[in-house]
Structures are given as C-alpha cells and as structure tokens.
Write a structure and sequence with these properties.
1 helix, elongated, FAD/NAD-bd_sf, mainly alpha
Length: 69
C-alpha cells in the first residue's frame, strides 16, 4: 500500500504495522499528524573553480514544516 499526501492516521498506522511485522505496534493516540511531500534536488555541479560547495549538513534540504531534533 503506497501512502499519499491525503493519507489518514489509520492508513499510516497500518503501513507502519506492516513494516514492523513480526513485531506488534499498539497506537493509543496520535498527538501530531501531517502529510509532507518529499522534495529532492540534485546540484548539476558540486565543484566550481576547484571549490566544493555542498558538504555535510549544508547538502540537506529540510522541510520548513518538519520538526528538527
């Protein structure tokens, strides 16, 4: 089952349960739920004039909606 941006909490829980099998997951409540689109961008060049400009954390593209830890 593929999830979409319109997935419900129930659909997401069922998907996670399927992934975790043979382990059992019990969800009593959900405090926060939001569907986010995955975005991926790839630079056409990583080196310009013998200088690297994408390294480590700077190469990440976090969503402004996603909580950061």
């Amino acid at each position: 089952m593929a999830l979409t941006l319109t997935a419900t909490v129930k659909e997401v829980v069922e998907k996670v349960k399927a992934i975790l099998k043979p382990y059992d997951l019990q969800v009593d409540s959900v405090r926060y739920f939001e569907a986010c689109a995955r975005s991926e961008r790839i630079a056409s060049k990583f080196i310009v004039k013998h200088r690297v400009f994408f390294v480590g954390g700077s190469a990440k593209l976090p969503s402004p909606k996603m909580p950061q830890g």
